[in-house]
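Researcher: I'd like a candidate sequence for this fold, 752 residues long. If you have to choose between options at a position, lean toward the conservative one.
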């Protein structure tokens, strides 16, 4: 309330100051008698009286606003804010009116020579200053008092209500430019550009050179055209062309060097950010990948990085180039004709306004276009990834018409966009030019501009329009880049909840003793669902232990904990008595190897898949052959076209399920791990192959602990010991014979 009152007082004070200043200017200039032009009545081209209109309108609006806020201190400021358009409109009319008066007076020789000129300038200047102050006081007065009232009312509410939407959770599209900049995103982007400062510097020097050169070109074009059409200037033609050619060559050289330097910088920046992002992604904890979609990560790595790195480089280039050009062009325009320049600057805000309306309409429709395109892409993606299903249901034409329909939905919006663009071009492109031509023609007749100057002016005006429009595009591009950058930096700076650099233990050799001590566990993505509850068991060195139990009981989760993919919520998982979290990441995975349920092969050769993750000094040709033979993979690999060099295709699709499993077993064995984890590792093998693999593992078992998960009885009954896990708890432990005699859960599982 108090703050509102302060703002109201400031409001009224500034408005009266506005009136007073105008009155003082009139009084001091002894211009009261000029109100009606020395008693001859009002005359637009000589009278000053209309300069009173605007202070009076401003003061009336300010008093109205003050009363409004006084009557309703909570809603008042917000209501005033609704009328911001009126304030902008009044100020704009004031500006236009003052400038038109300026142009009219400037044609009156007696006025220019007379005593009224000084007072006109003072009134003109105050008219503009008063308008600017009025906009500022309205904008900040109503916003600040509104915010303070809102804060006060929020503080007094007993239940604090927030919408629960953290700032980072907001869509970048919804954020303002300042919001994005204030997150220091630009600073971070620039910090990644620091190593390229020599490139940027050289590029900028060429950019400045090219821009300065380009500023002179319209001037020369004007001279050339004048030399062509006016016979008295024809002797200059060749000289002008030579000078112009010199400038054009210099501009071309500078532009080329600028483009090369800045493009190379953009590419280096792109690679640098991509590397940083990928480095950050691969060290994130496994739980992170459970929650984040792969598509989101790849889109960060591809489109977001490209958007931010290209846009920062490109926009820096475009912005600086156009800024230099715009300043130079303005100087030339005012030098050629200040009157035409005033006309241009009166026309530009109108064009900006139309552009703004068009811009926000385009942005709104573009969102719909993107959504509809995404829907069309869903169809394409689904079809491409499941072509066999489409073919087997003979639904090709159905999918084609579905895709066509979704693209047609996009087209419907794009038709509206095209129509609005047509109207936008009508409104912005030619009106200003026509008016400039008309007014320039008058000035030409009055001999206030030369024909060459007039031609150059028109060219400069076009150039200025292009500069502003490109600067406007930079703003849009920057918004996109900042939005993309924010997402990218969020990921680059993310600290993994389970770091891979936490452990320090690096024993040369271990016995291979596994122990789970009172382990409870929930997946981070489902913290409310207990997957393991107080699980305790031990596996002795050299022992083969099978985990069995109904599906979803928690067997694979035990294996994941032993690999330290996740941390238990309670208890500890130890290897030779040391918690697995204390081992060095690299060492732990040398000692413990896993063959998972669905082994993943990479789009590389069989050999590269087997030695995946090993340095060249960690394996030999013999060790690859030995591991492949143990995994019963050697014979089928030798029958492939390129033997060990055969490509396996994306995710190993060029191999059968059983072949993939055998390559995966060889990959685990080539490391000669002390602990081997087999999670349904032989499920896709035929009985014969499985028997051979089991035999091989049996032979190597003396120096290796094996923890296996299997559903097949033939696999399980060979184990030294069986642990039955049901609903996250250990129900039974013993050998096959012992558990069968017990006739408990295991017995039932076997018979079912
Ligand atoms: N990444 C995950 N995020 C959340 N929950 C999971 C995840 N992986 C498994 N679960 C859940 O944890 C529980 C135990 O799963 P787990 O894979 O350990 O069972 P399992 O005994 O190995 O089953 P199966 O024999 O079918 O492989 C299941 O309810 C499963 O839905």
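Model: Candidate sequence:
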């Amino acid at each position: 309330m108090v703050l509102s009152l302060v703002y109201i007082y400031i409001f009224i004070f500034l408005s009266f100051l506005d009136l007073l200043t105008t009155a003082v200017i009139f009084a001091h200039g002894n211009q009261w008698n000029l109100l009606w032009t020395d008693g001859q009545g009002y005359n637009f081209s000589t009278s000053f009286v209309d300069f009173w209109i605007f202070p009076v309108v401003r003061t009336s609006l300010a008093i109205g606003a003050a009363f409004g806020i006084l009557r309703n201190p909570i809603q008042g400021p917000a209501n005033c804010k609704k009328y911001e358009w009126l304030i902008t409109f009044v100020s704009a009319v004031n500006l236009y009116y003052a400038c038109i008066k300026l142009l009219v007076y400037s044609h009156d020789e007696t006025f220019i020579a007379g005593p009224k000129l000084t007072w006109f300038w003072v009134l003109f200047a105050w008219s503009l200053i008063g308008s600017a102050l009025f906009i500022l006081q309205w904008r900040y007065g109503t916003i600040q008092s509104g915010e303070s009232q809102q804060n006060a009312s929020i503080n007094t509410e007993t239940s604090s209500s927030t919408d629960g939407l953290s700032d980072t959770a907001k869509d970048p599209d919804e954020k303002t430019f300042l919001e994005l900049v204030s997150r220091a995103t630009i600073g971070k982007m620039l910090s990644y550009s620091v190593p390229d400062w020599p490139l940027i510097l050289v590029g900028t020097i060429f950019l400045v050179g090219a821009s300065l050169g380009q500023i002179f070109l319209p001037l020369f074009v004007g001279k050339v055209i004048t030399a062509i059409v006016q016979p008295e200037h024809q002797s200059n033609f060749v000289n002008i062309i030579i000078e112009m050619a010199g400038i054009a060559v210099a501009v071309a050289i500078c532009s080329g060097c600028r483009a090369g330097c800045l493009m190379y910088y953009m590419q280096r920046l792109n690679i640098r950010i991509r590397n940083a992002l990928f480095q950050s992604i691969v060290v994130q904890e496994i739980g992170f990948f459970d929650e984040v979609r792969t598509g989101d990560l790849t889109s960060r790595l591809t489109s977001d990085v490209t958007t931010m790195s290209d846009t920062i480089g490109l926009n820096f280039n475009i912005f600086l180039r156009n800024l230099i050009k715009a300043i130079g062009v303005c100087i030339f325009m005012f030098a050629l004709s200040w009157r035409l320049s005033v006309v241009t600057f009166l026309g530009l805000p109108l064009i900006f306004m139309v552009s703004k309306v068009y811009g926000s309409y385009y942005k709104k429709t573009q969102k719909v276009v993107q959504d509809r395109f995404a829907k069309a892409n869903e169809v394409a993606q689904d079809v491409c990834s499941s072509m066999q299903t489409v073919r087997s249901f003979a639904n090709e034409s159905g999918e084609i018409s579905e895709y066509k329909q979704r693209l047609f939905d996009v087209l419907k919006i794009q038709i509206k966009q095209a129509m609005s663009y047509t109207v936008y071009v009508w409104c912005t492109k030619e009106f200003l030019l026509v008016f400039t031509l008309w007014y320039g023609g008058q000035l030409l007749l009055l001999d206030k501009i030369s024909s060459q100057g007039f031609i150059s002016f028109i060219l400069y005006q076009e150039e200025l329009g292009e500069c502003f429009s490109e600067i406007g595009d930079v703003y849009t591009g920057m918004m996109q880049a900042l939005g993309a950058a924010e997402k990218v930096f969020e990921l680059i700076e993310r600290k993994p909840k389970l770091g891979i650099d936490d452990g320090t233990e690096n024993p040369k050799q271990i016995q291979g003793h596994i122990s789970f001590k009172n382990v409870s566990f929930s997946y981070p993505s489902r913290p409310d669902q207990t997957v393991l509850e107080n699980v305790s068991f031990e596996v002795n060195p050299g022992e083969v232990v099978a985990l069995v139990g109904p599906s979803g009981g928690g067997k694979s989760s035990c294996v994941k904990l032993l690999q330290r993919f996740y941390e238990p919520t309670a208890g500890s998982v130890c290897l030779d008595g040391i918690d697995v979290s204390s081992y060095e990441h690299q060492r732990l995975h040398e000692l413990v190897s896993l063959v998972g349920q669905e082994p993943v092969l990479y789009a590389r050769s069989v050999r590269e898949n087997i030695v995946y993750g090993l340095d060249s000094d960690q394996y030999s040709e013999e060790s690859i052959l030995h591991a492949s033979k143990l995994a019963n993979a050697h014979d089928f690999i030798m029958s492939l076209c390129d033997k060990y060099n055969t490509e396996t295709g994306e995710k190993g699709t060029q191999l059968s399920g059983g072949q993939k499993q055998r390559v995966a077993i060889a990959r685990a064995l080539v490391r000669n791990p002390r602990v081997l984890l087999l999670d349904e590792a032989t499920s896709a093998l035929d009985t014969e192959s499985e028997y051979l693999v089991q035999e091989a593992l049996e032979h190597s078992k003396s120096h290796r602990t094996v923890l296996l998960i299997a559903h097949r009885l033939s696999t399980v009954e060979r184990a030294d010991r069986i642990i039955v896990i049901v609903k996250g708890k250990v129900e039974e432990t013993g050998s096959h014979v012992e558990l069968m005699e017990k006739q408990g859960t295991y017995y039932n599982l076997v018979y079912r």
